[in-house]
Specification:
It is built from 20 helices and four strands. By secondary structure, the protein is mostly helical. A four-stranded mixed β-sheet has the order 1-2-4-3, with helices on both faces. β3 and β4 form a beta hairpin. α10 packs across α11 and α14 runs antiparallel to α15. The relative contact order is 0.13.
Amino acid sequence: MTLALLRPVDHDESQYVAAAILTAQGLLPYKDFAYLQTPLQPYLFAPIAALGGTWTWPALRITNALLGAATIAAVHHAARIGGASTRAATFAAALFATSDILLFSIGTARNDAFPAACLALALPAIVRTARDQASRRDAILIGALLAAAATAKISYALPALTYGIWTLFRADRRPWWTLLGTLPFVALTTALLIQAPEGFLFGVISFPGQAPTEWYQAHPWKLSNTAKIIDILKFLALGPALLAIVATAGKRDRWHRILDLLILAGLIAALAPVPTWRQYLLPMLPALFVRLALVWHAHPPGKAMRIAAVAFACAGLAPTVEAVASGRIPMLDAMRDAAVVREILDREHVTGPVATLSPQFLPGRAIDPRFATGPFYFRSTALLNADQERQLRLVSHARIALLGQPPVILTGGEGAWSSGDDRIDAALATYAIREGYRAVPVPDTRFTLYVARHASPRSAPHNSP
């Protein structure tokens, strides 16, 4: 939780904070605002946004940190159920906790921690099922948790599907009871698909498949297979994940096969998007470190392997140490900036929705639903035409004229300091200036408010000379 508050701001958080806030206000994903993932997380996190108020953003970070702790604990528990000693299970879980892939994913208000926790919490029951006959309770629990993971992030659909196919090969794995556990989440997804099919298909399928390729066209190297391989190896080496792959290769009992299948499914899910980022590799890690505990219980690591494990653990901690080494508390700084923005909005008597690429700075104020995706759709150029943008309540910088005249525009939250690109924030600022908005600096922050100029009222007619 401390690291989550110390980690710098990341613009990836914008759409997830905005989605939780808008859902808490009664808006529906895909229908009332665009959401670029499968739909479960906004519904689960909406109560946190409703209770958190202006502190929604750090509350979501703390929630993800707690989910990360649950993920680590579940890996330890699954290893113990699988037969690993307490020492081996604790060592593997501790190494898992030092992986940069995990630490980044659970240290920000993204949508990585919840599905990873669901997958990890399913592992104890999966291990029991693989070693013995499955109980109905375990089968339903596994189905529910894996379906919840896939309904929160689509990359977890492949591990879920892999487990489902594995259960079909033996009746004692209770595939139909596993399917029963998935039904509530299938029903939620189907209901939202029926209610807003165009928005759902664009957010879940089209945008993730097309937008990164469009954005990185100016950097074709990032889209190459060579870059993908280098990135995968780099992210796995920032922590003990690469070591775990080497240590577990070729050493297994027969029932370990399902863990291997889940690891492979997680790796394929990480390879599918272009480009690959570190958080994409998280689905493969829980099963991998359970396997590591089981292997090291059966074949205890020698001195050289233990030294290598410590070295890789230090490498995994290094990016987090670097990120939090500034001596500041970025979340407190961000909340101070948000408080000043609210103060200026009150001073300017602005009550309408705010158009901004950084909606995570606006808990407690109305967010323009067209900017619920933060910078991620706005920076696109040709994914949708004008009519589709109107229908899906989106605005791109290529058709910024469709923005109209929102009461206020906020810029300054998108830049290198937030892993973003200040050029697209500049496009929003340029539009505001061109449309005659009045610039209002937000003191001691990076932000600028652009307030719409209201036409002066005409003089009332009168009869006095």
